[in-house]
Write a structure and sequence with these properties.
Blueprint lengths: L19 E2 L5 E3 L2 E2 H8 L3 E5 H14 L3 E6 L6 H9 L3 E4 L2 H9 L7 E3 L6 H10 L3 E4 L2 H14 L3 E8 L21 E2 L4 H11 L3 E7 L10 H21 L5 E6 L14 H18 L6 E5 L2 H4 L3 E12 L4 E5 L8 H5 L6 E2 L8 E7 L8 E9 L7 E5 L20 E5 L2 E6 L4 H5 L6
Parallel strand pairs: 4-20, 5-6, 5-13, 6-7, 7-8, 8-9, 9-10, 9-11, 11-12, 12-13, 15-17
Antiparallel strand pairs: 1-2, 2-3, 4-14, 14-15, 14-19, 16-19, 17-18, 20-21
Helix pairs in contact: 5-6, 8-9
């Protein structure tokens, strides 16, 4: 058998950078073969390429010089991920008490953590204050009062940003667009609530306003949306300077940087994003004679998404008048995005080369739902059958994070691979784990 080599069906925009095939067509990642993974850990599983993840962290830190790069933990977060993010010099963005607990347990210094959330509880805010979280992103007038009281009681002055709604259409799915007016996040610039919130924070002696935060949406492929957002934000910074005689020192433009899920997707590179965003901020600040604030961004999907793929085993094959259905041993419990957003994925035969022509296929899960789809429509070899392995790339973001136990299906493990070695990052759930939650029977 010859050594594994890159293969044309493995688009480097979609797959971890270490993925190859050998002369049998067997998929390898970081020197570990798909059949070895399946034999050792059983399918389904998420396969996480540690070196790829680290490289993408470094790409952002390098491209966005003099910028605070926050890894968006909601995409996928474990203690191990926290450790890697810390080691690679990133900050960490969390948006719940649970994510904050993981971040602290994983050793992230509290002053490098940013806490988001449109409905942070008193308990969550108290934990953040007590831990010394570096930035709290305020989302409502209620939270201003709540946090100010907690900070005063603790005898601390807390650094905060105000999340503002800039009122633009980011041209993404309705559920992931977060900058238009009719949604739950932030203070609107258009109706004056953002400037009113600025006044309230400045009046609270226990809060220190360091800047504004904006997030225009998710799966954004270019910088045009950031250009419009930055223009409106810097105009607001000008108003704050003129009214309150202060220059806010920070500007957080959020994340939402898109990735390729199929070869039809064409996201901007990290370098293109950095050059474009930094140029926009500099030009807009110069136009208003504003000092250029320290930037912060929050990539999540763009770092972890392509670093991971899901490995399934085919269970049944069914032909209909419309297409062939390939049923795998996972589905919407490990990847809800196709059912939730109509998200498009691709898949490849992972354990061998095919020997038959391709046929129109749909990869579906094992759950009792018609919408339990993994890949909607794809041409796959007609000889795929029970026992074959299918690999679905770009599943690092929001798949394990949004996984469920629907149909009492235990969630799959996350297997980390690096330098020819595979190990469990997050173990597979068992039926015993699920039964242990039940108190009354």
């Amino acid at each position: 058998m010859t050594a594994p080599s890159p293969c044309p069906d493995l688009d480097p925009l979609i797959w971890p950078r270490t993925v190859t095939r050998d002369d049998r067509g067997m998929l390898h990642v970081a020197g570990v073969s798909a059949d070895t993974l399946a034999g050792q850990f059983r399918t389904p599983m998420y396969v996480f390429d540690e070196r790829d993840f680290r490289a993408r962290c470094r790409d952002f830190v390098s491209a966005f010089a003099d910028t605070d790069v926050y890894y968006a933990g909601k995409a996928f977060l474990t203690k191990a991920i926290t450790r890697i993010v810390r080691e690679e010099g990133l900050h960490l963005d969390v948006c719940s008490g649970g994510e904050l607990a993981v971040a602290l347990a994983g050793g992230m210094p509290a002053d490098r953590i940013g806490l988001h959330g449109n409905n942070k509880s008193v308990g969550e805010l108290r934990t953040a204050v007590d831990a010394g979280v570096g930035r709290i992103i305020i989302d409502s007038f209620t939270e201003i009062e709540r946090l100010a009281r907690l900070a005063e009681a603790a005898g601390r002055r807390i650094k905060v940003l105000l999340r503002v709604t800039v009122g633009i259409d980011a041209h993404t799915h309705e559920y992931t667009a977060t900058a238009h007016e009719d949604q739950k996040f932030g203070f609107s610039l258009a109706d004056g609530n953002a400037l009113a919130a600025v006044e309230r924070v400045l009046a609270a002696g226990s809060l220190e306003l360091t800047g504004l935060h904006s997030h225009i949406g998710s799966q954004i492929f270019g910088t045009s949306g950031f250009e419009v957002a930055t223009r409106r934000l810097t105009d607001t910074y000008r108003s704050i300077r003129d009214v309150h005689a202060i220059a806010l020192p920070e500007l957080n433009l959020g994340g939402g940087f898109g990735i390729a899920y199929t070869s039809a997707d064409d996201p901007a590179s990290v370098t293109e994003l950095a050059l474009g965003i930094q140029k926009i901020v500099e030009e807009e600040c110069n136009a208003w004679s504003l000092p250029i604030p320290r930037l912060a961004i929050e990539p999540g999907r763009a770092i972890v998404g392509p670093s991971t793929f899901t490995l399934y085993e085919v269970g049944t094959v069914k032909d209909t008048a419309a297409r062939r259905y390939l049923s795998v041993d996972g589905g919407m419990s490990d990847n809800i995005r196709p059912a939730l957003y109509g998200a498009a994925y691709t898949a490849v035969l992972a354990n061998r080369w095919p020997v038959a022509p391709e046929v129109l296929s749909r990869v579906v899960g094992k759950h009792c739902e018609t919408g339990d789809v993994v890949v909607w429509d794809i041409s796959l070899p007609a000889d795929i059958g029970p026992g074959d392995l299918l690999a679905v790339p770009a599943t690092g973001a929001y798949c394990r994070a949004m996984a469920s136990n629907y149909n009492v299906q235990p969630r799959p493990p996350v297997i980390a691979v690096a330098d020819g070695t595979a190990r469990v990052m997050t173990r597979r759930e068992t039926f015993a784990d699920l039964m242990a939650l039940e108190e009354w029977a």
